């Protein structure tokens, strides 16, 4: 009987050693942080809404939304757009429509930020007569108007001739 007990004792000792209580690797807990804490494009800082997970960037009129490089800082392990790992200050994306930045934490959990870039259409190419234009997108401070288009003075016309409010040939 004594022999059996010692066998049991040895057995439980062996069990203790091989058991996953050796998960003392929990001292290296993987971080779950996955925030984007700063975001800018062409030196313009974006407005980060951490609650809504949105980032809004307003760029100057006329900026080409294609191939823009974002500079960002994150508390996550990596950042992806689609399957492409994003390198701050290096990876270019087209922002003609909102772009989803997925931040991956060390523990594999993720957070998705929707980045929206707004670029006002330049007044001289917005397809409407506004500002100082004398006709749609021409005259005033925009390009000079062609023949037959409305003008206030000769300076509004490519031909330098403004007759009865119309640019001459
Ligand atoms: Ca216009």
Give a short synopsis of this structure.
By secondary structure, this protein is mostly beta strands.
Strand percentage lies at 25-35%
The helix content is 10-25%
Q: How far do the termini sit from each other?
A: 119 Å
Number of strands: 12
Q: Name every ligand kind in the structure.
A: calcium ion
> Architecture of the largest domain in CATH?
Sandwich
Order of adjacent strands in the largest pleated sheet: 3-4-10-9-6-7
H/E element order: HEEEEEEEEEEEE
How can the largest sheet be summarized?
6 strands, mixed
SS-derived structural category: mainly beta
What is the CATH C level class of the largest domain, in words?
Mainly Beta
Notes on the structure:
- With 169 residues, this protein is mostly beta strands.
- It folds into 2 domains: 36-118, Immunoglobulin-like (Sandwich); 123-169.
- Helix content is 10%, strand content 30%.
- The strands form 3 sheets. Strands 3-4-10-9-6-7 form a 6-stranded mixed β-sheet, with no helix packed on it. The protein has a 4-stranded antiparallel β-sheet with strand order 2-1-5-8, with no helix packed on it.
- The mean pLDDT is 89.
What is the topological layout?
Elements: H1 2-18, E1 36-41, E2 44-45, E3 47-49, E4 54-58, E5 68-74, E6 78-81, E7 84-85, E8 92-93, E9 99-104, E10 110-118, E11 162-163, E12 166-167
Parallel strand pairs: 4-10
Antiparallel strand pairs: 1-2, 1-5, 3-4, 5-8, 6-7, 6-9, 9-10, 11-12
Any key phrases for this structure?
169 residues, mainly beta, Immunoglobulin-like, 2 domains, 1 helix, 10% helix, binds calcium ion
